[in-house]
Amino acid sequence: MPRLVEIDMAGGSEFVVELQRIWDAGDAVFPVDQRLPAAAKEQVKAAMRVGEPVEPGDALVVATSGSTGAPKGVVLTHGAVRASAEATNARLAVTDEDHWLACLPLSHVGGLSVVTRALHAGTRLTVHPSFDPDAAIASGATCVSLVATAMRRIDTSRFRTIVLGGSRPPADRPPNAVATYGMTETGSGVVYDGVPLDGVEIRFVDGEIQLRCDMLMRCYRDGSDPKTADGWLPTGDIGYLLEDGRLHVAGRKGDLIITGGENVWPEAVEDVLRTHPAVADVIVRGVADDEWGHIVHADIVADGTPPTLAALRAHVKETHPAFTAPRTISVVDQIPRTPIGKPIRTHP
């Protein structure tokens, strides 16, 4: 009976060799997050039931990012991994001349999928234990998967293609950066620059994005399956199609701020606030309020002298309705994010 086998090592060529060895033995792989302390590693391995049986055909168990609670184990089959690799390589026109660099955490699907798609296609692959701008350039890779914070630290012109995942992509991303939409449950990104990969279907149910494709998870490690009876995955994201047919993701259902009966999407306000010269980074969230239900609050990382609330409200109101402008702000040292760059919001 195949079982789940951990890989508890830093990224590098040995990781790739071990992954292939476990697969060749018919077992599935759980990559352990190297940033966890020893006790936390043991807890997550127990939660993922490392060493216990898996179904024939299971390839990976990948922990979700855990931005809204304890991470879940997503079970991906070899068929799903193969479908993701083939569709991604086709969309990016990857050839035998290309060279992938994996430098995101291999415990998350955004980093691990670089390895699996290169293995599937036989593309040259370099794996680094973490992101280092100089090492990334020195690798000579033509294709790389990054998050926005890493992309800002690198000469993007040195790559043919940058696959950009994690948090909302910056508006000024370079032309060779492809913004992806996906999640652990979809085995990596399945919508590139608003256009679904071949074989990926999108529908909307009460505004929620639902996806159906061969890349989807089989189930969670606890045996539960979030998919509908006919195979659609509710994503928990709200979105719609733009006039040109591309997908626009407004945000997570739970992140929506309703203030005085008006709907405010945090990411739209964040996009505006980031254009203020005194704002280096920002996260917007709802804070409970007796009068308004919730009010819009912004945590600001200042670039130099912190901006005033009045200045930020005026800046937002230049392009957006007044009710979207923050009513309160806090100046913080940094914005809490998951390892792949997603902001961690609290919304009491």
Key phrases:
Rossmann fold, 348 residues, GMP Synthetase, Chain A, domain 3
Describe it for me?
The protein has helices spanning 13-24, 38-47, 78-91, 109-121, 133-138, 148-151, 266-273, 309-317, and strands spanning 4-7, 28-31, 58-63, 73-77, 99-102, 124-127, 143-147, 161-165, 177-183, 188-192, 195-196, 201-205, 208-212, 219-220, 233-241, 247-252, 257-259, 262-264, 279-289, 293-302, 328-331. The protein folds into two domains: 4-250, ANL, N-terminal domain (Rossmann fold); 256-331, 2-Layer Sandwich (GMP Synthetase, Chain A, domain 3), CATH 3.30.300. It starts with a strand and ends in a 17-residue tail after the last strand. Strand 17 (257-259) and strand 18 form a beta hairpin. With 348 residues, it is α/β, with parallel strands linked by helices. It contains eight helices and 21 strands. It has a seven-stranded mixed sheet. The chain has a four-stranded antiparallel sheet with strand order 12-13-15-16.
